[in-house]
Amino acid sequence: PPPPPPPPLFTAPATTEIYTTAKSSAASDVYKRQQLVSVTWIRKMASTQSSSRRRCWLVLGLVFHQVASFAGEAERLDYQVIYRGVFSLGQDMTIADVALTTRRLAGEDRLRETRLEATSAGYPGVEALYPFRYRFRSWATGADARLLGFEAYEKTLKERHRLYLRDDSRLGVRRLDPQDALGRQSLAQLAAGERPDATLRGGGLFDRLGLVQQIRSRALSAQAEFRFQVTNGRDRFAYRVRVQGAQSLMLHGRPVSAWKLRIDGSKSSRDGATKVAHRPIYLWVSRAPGHVPLRLDSRHSVGRFRIELAAPAVNAIQVAEGG
């Protein structure tokens, strides 16, 4: 039988209540380790509100189908999420598809919309235990990429939908309910490319998808370092992005010229102390203009999560680079 799927992406570290019952033989233990993870355990872990849940959402927020175009008005990228760890018996297991779309909207203000979608729909093992659908959208001014607002929609065992607009508070955003009149109006304005009643401040604060765009827009070189302020609506983070060097990255049997980046995050508590937000994240982007995200690795106590560009998109990159 196939190995079990990993737990949800955003859970606390594993417990020992995973595979076997209290009484079982050694032989049956081996067999049971190849069976599906307990649904009860999955649900318990899925409900845990932990820092690891927030960290893994940042991972998804950092780099998420075929490349429609590398420049111009629209771009769409396809990725797969691959897990390797204790819940896959050390083997690679694909658990989700992720899409990242960037486009200029048709409204008078020509806002830039970045949209990220993640789904487990194509993976029956994950669907049987913990089906999930995620959608994130971010809107920024077209001329100088200043944050206006962002949306978060999550459907798992629960359904959550939130909208945040830029303001001058400590977090830099205020939360709206997309189901009430003001929230519906603001969301409709943003989706149409119009500016809602959001406070436009300086360009130094980004949401997670805005961070992706900032990394891609920079002139990268070996040992270059950048710092960003990021909000997820609940906390404010300080991020340091450092280019570790150039590499030839093998993707689906094809070499792609890449920059390897290390991303470190920290946040300040209310008493002024600074603490690390998560383990280092490693990101590879293409060296060609536009710096397409190629691969992202994030290590967790239960294993490694890898987000990797799909094969057709890799072929398109090589064509764009003349390879």
Give a short summary of the structure:
With 323 residues, this protein is α+β, with helices and mostly antiparallel strands.
Plain-language structure description:
The protein has 323 residues and is of the alpha+beta class. Helices cover 20% and strands 39% of the residues. It is built from seven helices and 15 strands. The chain has a 15-stranded mixed beta sheet that branches. The two termini are 40 Å apart. Residues 1-72 have low confidence and may be disordered.
Task: Break the fold down into its secondary structure elements and pairings.
Blueprint: H1 26-32, H2 39-46, H3 51-62, E1 74-85, E2 93-104, E3 112-119, H4 124-129, E4 133-140, E5 147-155, E6 159-166, E7 173-176, H5 181-191, E8 205-206, H6 208-217, E9 225-231, E10 236-251, E11 254-268, E12 274-276, E13 281-286, E14 293-300, E15 303-309, H7 311-320
Parallel strand pairs: 8-9
Antiparallel strand pairs: 1-2, 1-15, 2-3, 3-4, 4-5, 5-6, 6-7, 9-10, 10-11, 11-12, 11-13, 13-14, 14-15
